[in-house]
Amino acid sequence: MLHARKDYNRIQDPALQDPSLLSEGSSPIAEDEPVFLVRASDQAFVPTLNAWIDAHLACYGSQVMTDAVKKHIRKAVEWQKKNRYELADAPVEVFSPNCPYPNLHSDDCDCQGMGGPR
């Protein structure tokens, strides 16, 4: 899996090595497939998953999958009630060395961070 953050590269699909881990009808995530990980500790977690549900349904996706994501959202909300959550952090590597203020981005900054290229 190719992650947007280098520090997440440690997260890989073990089913590439052990196909018995796959559920029926699923396939392993390829080593070169870009993925995007959002954690429940991120304030954007619930809105992101809700946006995914909207996009999934707009593409005529299954209600079964939508229900599974809604169940996951409920778990995240319960987790957030007990744990600290805030805007996602960003490791230094995602910021351009040209960015003088890595926490304050502008549209002309070439960072990969929050205010960088879209």
C-alpha geometry: globular
**What is the percent of helical residues?**
25-40%
Distance between the termini: 21 Å
Q: What is the number of E strands? A: 0
Given the helix and strand composition, which structural class is it? mainly alpha
Counting copies of identical and different chains, the oligomeric state is single chain
Query: Roughly what fraction of the amino acids lie in strands?
Result: under 5%
| Unreliable stretches covering 5 or more consecutive residues | 111-118
Total helix count? Answer: 2
C-alpha Rg, in Å? 17 Å
Give helix and strand order, one letter per element, not per position: HH
Largest sheet properties? none
Overall mean pLDDT stands at: 82
Number of domains: 3
Key features?
118 residues, mainly alpha, 3 domains, 2 helices, globular
Summarize the structure in words.
The chain has 118 residues and is mainly alpha-helical. It has three domains: 37 residues, no CATH class; 47 residues; 26 residues, no CATH class. The chain has two helices and no strands. Helix 1 packs antiparallel against helix 2.
